[in-house]
Each structure stands twice: as C-alpha cells, then as structure tokens.
Amino acid sequence: MSGGISRRTFNRGLAWTAGAVGLGAAKSATVGAQDLGDFGSIDPSSPLLFASPRLEPFVDELPLLPVITGSELELRAASTVHRFHRDLDPSPTLAYGGMDYLGPTIEAHSGDPLTVAYRNEIGVHPLAGDFDTSLHGVTEQDRTAVPTSMHLHGAVTPPEHDGHPAFLQRPGQGHVHRYPNVHEATQFWYHDHAMGITRLNVYAGLAGLYLLRDEFDTGTAANPWGLPSGEFEVSLVLQEKRFTANGHQSIRATPLVPQGRWDAGTPGDVGVVNGKIWPDLEVARGMYRLRVLNAASFSVWNLFFGNGMRFWILGMESGMLPAPVPATRVRLAPGERVDLLVDFGALEPGSTVELRNDEPPPLGALQRGAGAMPLFCRFRAAGGRGVSGTVPEILRGGRGRPADLAPIATPQVQRTVSVMQLPDPSTGGVLMSLNNLLFGDTDIEMPRQGTVEQWNIVNITPEPHPIHLHLVNFRILGRQTIDVPSYTRRHPPPPVGTRWAPPVDEFVTSPVVPPEPWEAGPKDTVVTNPGTVTRIVVVFPTADQLGFDPDATFAAGAAAPSPPALPPPLQGYVWHCHMLDHEDHDMMLGYRVVAE
C-alpha cells in the first residue's frame, strides 16, 4: 500500500502536531545555551531540530557481529563506551555480552532448548537525564538503578521468560531465561523491554540478533538451497541516531521538548549499521545473504540499493517464503527483519553501491523539518570473485525443504482493535494508545486457546504504526482505507480509560489491498498505515501444543515498579506498537490466551 498522505490526513496531523509543539513551547519558551546541551547549534534549515555534527561517510569498516553458541549461555547488560565514527569521541553506551555496543549474535538450533542466564550489571545509564518520571512506573530511582527486562522478539516462550515489561531486574539482579526454540529456522532479535524506558535502553545499545537454524537452513555450505554462508552471510542491524557535538548519542531531536520529557518521536539524521555511522564493507563479486533488522526507535524505511539493482527476498521475521521474491525495494518497520539474497557479481572491481532509504518521516516529524534519513552503508567490490550460483526457484515444499505454507486459517472470531493518538489528561500533551486505554488498564483482549481470530487493526492516526504481538505469529489478509472523520463522528471516543474499538466495516473506502509479496508468510510485526484497517489472522495455540501454559501467572520480578502499573502477580503477554517512543507512552496493552 502506498505511503502517501491525503489532505484529510494532513489536516488531522496538523492539529496533533500543534498540540505537541505547544506542550514543548510552554515548557521552553526560549532556546538558550542550556537547551542546546552538547549540540552547540541547530541546523538553520530545520530550526526546530538538533543536528548531528557533519561527518564523512564510509571512513569506518562495517563491524561484523560476533556469534555465540551453546545450550547454556550467560548474557550481561553493562555500561560501556563505544566510538560510532572515526571523527567522534567515544560515547557512553550500553551493551550485552561483553561488547561495547549491541550484543553478540546468538545462534541456536530448532528443537534444541536454550538457557540464557541474564544479569543486569548496568552502572551509569548514558541517557539517565532523559528518563521521564511522569510515565507509568518510571521513578527517580531508575536513573541510577536502571531496570531491565530482556525480551526475545518473535520467539514462542513461556510467559515468565518472555521479557514482560513489568518483569524487571535492577543492577545485581538477573533471570534465567529458558527458550524452547520450537520454531523453524528464522531470525529473531533480543532487546530490552523495561516499562517506560524501552526506547532509552534499546537506543543506548541493548539489542542483539538471534539466528535459529534447522536441517533445511543450516547456515553452512551444506545448506540445501545453496545459499551463501560463513563470511558471505552478513547481519545488518540498522538504526538512526542524532549525536551531540562531543560525539555522544542523543535521544533528543528538538529543543521544543525539554530534556527529561517524553517525545513522540523524530527520525535520526545519520544512519548507523552494526554500531558504525555510514560504514563501508568490502564484498567479493558474488552472492551474499544479508540478514537485516530495523532496530530503530521510530522510522519505517523504504530500503533500496543506490544503483537500483534487483535483489531477492527469501523471508521475513518468521521463516522462508514459498519462493524468493524479486524486488528493487523493501519496506521495513521497527522490529521487522528481512532475509535478502544479493548478487554483487555485476559490480566492477573498486565500484560501490549504497544501501539507501527514501521513505519520508511521518507528518509530525515533517512539520518539525525532518526529512528522510537517506543512507545506511556502502558496499565496495573487491577484485576477486566470490560465491557464484543461481537463485533458488522454490524455498518450500518437496524433499529437502520445509513444508509448504498452510493456507490462511478461517477465522472463528472477529476482533476490532484501535490505534490512537490522544490528548494526555495528566500533562495536557499527547499520548499514544491502543483501544483508548493505558498500559495498566485491565480491559484487555482474552482470546481462547485453540481459536482462530481475525484482528481488524484500525489506525485512525496520521502515522504508520508497526504492531507486534508477543507469543504468536499471524498472517496478513490485507489493508483497506477508511473514512476516519465519519467513523469518529458516528462513534465519538470516550474519555481515556474506556475501551473504544467500534466496528469499522461500514466506513471502509477501498477494496482490500493484499499484503506485499514479501509479507505473504507468517509474521510477528505488521505495519498499519494511517487511516486504514489492517486485517490479520492469528491462531492462538493451546497449552498442549505449546508444552507450557500461556496463561500461567508469574512473579512481578525483583524490581517491580512502585506503585505497580499492573497488579502482581503478572499474567499473559503484551501487544504494542514497535515504535519504541510510542510503546513507552502508552501504545501497549496486555493480553491473555485463556483456556476454555
């Protein structure tokens, strides 16, 4: 579906942005040196935005992420220091597993359980001044005794090992996570999920990849498809950031929002890949497999190669597609992953090609002066030839390949849920919401185990929102535009805290637009575009199918917030927007998969 913006949507966005800017302006009527912090200047062409220092691209080599394996692993989160660019001073960061930024790639095998002994050893948080104690569960204590909760995104895990946002560990505390790995080969990722500060912990560096292998996708030269492996399989963790004049990473985008107050989100102005700004990778002239993750806090990207060359999409976050999809672009939202087969064989020795983005930011960021963050990294062709081969014709079905995708199941239940941007009654500002509720509200979805449900996700906002469901995968039926003004006039939203998700079918204004070809397989995150209803089908598994009770209760964790945002004990999972700025306030709700 096109990412274009209609006049009606634009006008709604103007009203929302005026409120957000008004909040900041009321708190910071003038911009002085104290407001600039370490930035030192504001770009005159974008007077409402801070700007990173001017930096030369392609002067740093792309770091290759280390891989760890084993049935029992230890993973510690710690305060570190990392240099993002040759010409920047080292920046305080967070990291997992002894690295100085991000975490090592965990490689596991389908069907082989994995135990990860996690421990929080964070000393100083590099973004402590950005903690907003008006958000649910966030306290002054959190700045110096930082809570964490490690989540394995996309995996099927028992509730006590899922990284629930209210299941917290402070420094000196930990949790032994047990991952069944009951999934075919795919690419997960792990990241922090602590309530109210997820955006800060992940931005500071708490994220890493998790590759799951099986007998069909071995990650070795014996891979049945003949896919590139070893040095020719490269993981790319994509992010966007802003940096201060002294080289420190900064979550702040505008002086209109004072430090220590939540911001609805603005894109970064530099691209970061595997912890380096606009890095360069020398590639052999041949086939590569690129495992790409959008680990941004905010932006949806339309990714393409600068020379327009074709590539093939093998799969997304939940495994292989039926066959490779030829493409010259792929749209990737925060939390989504894509598995690419790329042929650099046509490049002349010494020639280069860049991985780029041209999707403009959402309306509110556009009105601040933000533009598309255009560049991530460069690939430089070496003189020698690399892996040659052909693109597989099929990836599923037949001997030596995983089974064909099952047809999309017929829904037994229809469920409408809503994605909203609302006035914040506590501050007079803006908050993000699902179903007009706050995270701690108890009016949650409670699908029954063994039931097939169709979720109609209604986005009445002027922004795209990637919606992620923990525990389950789903299939996308398609998207339809809706008449938002008529919908909200007929069904006026009540005060915040009362569920609002009225039926939407009467207000659709287009046929169902099918998912993009690369969205045809199972997924755990889906982009809901502005002014649309996105329809997905979810099969909620039973306890017998899972091998554990998905509705079991568990303790609130060693560092439960005070006052609690949810009453102990905890139960179930969460679904939320994966724009981390949004999930922190308050576009996240719990849900339970209940027994008959």
Automatic annotation (TrEMBL):
Transmembrane segments: none annotated. It holds the Pfam family Cu-oxidase_3. Residues 146-214, 430-539 form the Plastocyanin-like domain. GO terms for molecular function: copper ion binding; oxidoreductase activity. It comes from the Bacteria. Belongs to the multicopper oxidase family. This is Copper oxidase. It comes from Rhodococcus spongiicola. The lineage of its organism: Bacteria, Bacillati, Actinomycetota, Actinomycetes, Mycobacteriales.
